[in-house]
User: Which sequence fits this backbone?
């Protein structure tokens, strides 16, 4: 269990209660204060916070989040998991891809509050006992990362593919990675790396 | 991102009540399905409803149990919850077998990540992807009173049904739903209503700001498909300017009711070329009662674009759409 936001919660006078049933009641429209002529400082103090529970890389986290935080912002800025990247922040590049209950999703395009009760896997969750996964080793061996910015997202999409299909065809690999752009355009090496991971027994 | 309050209703009625209460308090409200389109709009401060500000309140429909399933209904048709993920539609064996046009449309939406998150209703109700609207121009769709594409860049804009706005409807599943004669079930502050898919979408000449009839506090809860008779074949063909992860330059949803090589009836609905899913009944009529041949399919393509009114820079869509319809009809009929 890890609760990284206890101090923040009390400072912001988090309106109490735990558990999913209270979540809806904790959300107060902030604009109501904006329009009443209160100072901006007051509006910031009243940003709605919601307590959520989610599992990240197998560890349960109980955190209080601003409703407007994306899942990427929670992972990077508050849980310290900076392997997940923000590229476009618009669901148009794939750098922020994580597995949400095992399925690839753009963490920039889902809110942290919507991840309540769900299981998240990030690139940090791929290594086991300090060793990179076979897929990660194949990325290294085949020079799949050039600048490396898209790599964590590519790894997550490929990991999900290999979990459901141990021997994908090149076409299936390309389709599974279609939602991850590589500005170095190193697609052939990325596909070769995924193929190599397949031959050596998958991710 | 701008601050807002997220609500997790337990029922559709509660979702509608939250939205209605917020609206009466003068707040801006958006329903969130998968949220992939909505969060882009919020981040870029593009109005989700014409003239509205960025939302103060989000109503998270994913928290409502039981509105994301796919099930055969008592009439032998299919009831699909509005919150069904696009990836679930594409993977559903009953959708693939009986309503292949819908499965093919769903599997060609955007990218795997968006299909895992994005929903059927959200895809149908997404806002236009016109580059002016998405870049903050105060056009009809944002609540303004002009369409910047007419004298600007309109290579991807409408060749049918345009004016005063020339957006194209961006959904892949919407043409499939119209071609399948689906009905849309809506719940709002004034109760429930059910509409044929074709009556859900509105042309800019009737309402320049909206793409559909949904009120500000109404939710598209489920979609019903009629029972699929033996002999009904269908397919969705999508032309893109790259191989994946973009909207249709033009698309065709074709449903043919075939019996011993004869086409009993046809429905042809175009995507990416009009502000709504664009049904071409003159082209459908040519197929009724006929044996599909290469010559007939060519004539169907010609009829499909007979009413096209391209702008200065998108006339390429006319022959593109003509051949797309021809090829899709041939593919569905089994001739090609």
Assistant:
């Amino acid at each position: 269990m890890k609760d990284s936001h206890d101090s923040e919660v009390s400072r912001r006078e988090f309106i109490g209660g735990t558990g999913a049933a209270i979540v809806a009641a904790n959300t107060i429209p902030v604009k109501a204060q904006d329009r009443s002529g209160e100072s901006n400082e007051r509006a910031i103090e009243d940003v709605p916070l919601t307590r959520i529970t989610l599992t990240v890389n197998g560890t349960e986290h109980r955190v209080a989040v601003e409703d407007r935080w994306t899942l990427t912002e929670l992972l990077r800025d508050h849980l310290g998991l900076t392997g997940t990247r923000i590229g476009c922040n618009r669901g148009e590049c794939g750098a922020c891809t994580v597995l949400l209950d095992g399925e690839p999703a753009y963490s920039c395009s889902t809110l942290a509050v919507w991840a309540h009760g769900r299981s998240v896997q990030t690139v940090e969750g791929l290594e086991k006992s300090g060793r990179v996964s076979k897929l990660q080793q194949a990325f290294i061996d085949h020079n799949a990362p050039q600048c490396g910015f898209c790599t964590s997202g590519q790894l997550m999409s490929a990991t999900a593919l290999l979990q459901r299909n141990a021997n994908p065809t090149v076409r299936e690999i390309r389709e599974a990675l279609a939602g991850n752009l590589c500005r170095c355009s190193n697609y052939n090496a990325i596909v070769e790396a995924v193929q190599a991971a397949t031959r050596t027994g998958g991710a | 991102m701008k601050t807002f309050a997220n609500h997790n209703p337990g029922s559709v009625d509660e979702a509608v009540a939250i939205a209605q209460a917020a609206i009466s308090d003068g707040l801006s409200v958006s329903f969130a399905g998968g949220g992939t389109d909505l969060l882009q709009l919020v981040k870029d401060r593009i109005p989700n409803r014409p003239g509205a500000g960025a939302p103060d309140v989000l109503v998270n429909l994913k928290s409502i149990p039981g509105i994301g399933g796919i099930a055969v209904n008592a009439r032998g048709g299919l009831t699909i919850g509005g919150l069904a993920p696009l990836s679930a539609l594409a993977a559903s064996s009953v959708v693939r077998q009986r309503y292949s046009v819908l499965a093919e449309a769903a599997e060609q939406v955007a990218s795997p990540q968006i299909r895992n998150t994005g929903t059927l209703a959200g895809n149908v109700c997404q806002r236009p992807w016109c580059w002016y609207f998405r870049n903050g121009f105060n056009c009809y769709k944002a609540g303004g009173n002009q369409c910047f594409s007419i004298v600007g860049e309109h290579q991807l804009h409408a060749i049918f049904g345009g004016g005063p706005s020339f957006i194209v409807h961006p959904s892949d599943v919407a043409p499939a739903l119209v071609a399948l004669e689906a009905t849309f079930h809506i719940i709002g502050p004034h109760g429930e209503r059910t509409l044929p898919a074709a009556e859900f979408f509105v042309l800019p000449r009737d309402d320049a700001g909206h793409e559909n009839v949904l009120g500000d506090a109404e939710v598209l809860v489920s979609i019903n498909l009629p029972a699929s008779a033996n002999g009904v074949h269908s397919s969705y063909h999508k032309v893109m300017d790259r191989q994946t992860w973009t909207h249709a330059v033009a698309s065709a949803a074709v449903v043919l009711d075939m019996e011993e090589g004869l086409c009993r009836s046809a429905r042809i609905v175009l995507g990416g070329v009009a502000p709504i899913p664009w049904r071409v009944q003159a082209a459908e009529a040519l197929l009724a009662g006929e044996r599909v041949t290469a010559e007939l399919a060519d004539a169907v393509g010609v009829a499909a674009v007979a009413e096209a009114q391209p702008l200065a820079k998108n006339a390429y869509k006319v022959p593109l759409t003509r051949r797309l319809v021809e090829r899709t009809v041939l593919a569905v009929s089994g001739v090609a």
In short: Chain B has a mean pLDDT of 97. Chain B has 13 helices and 13 strands.
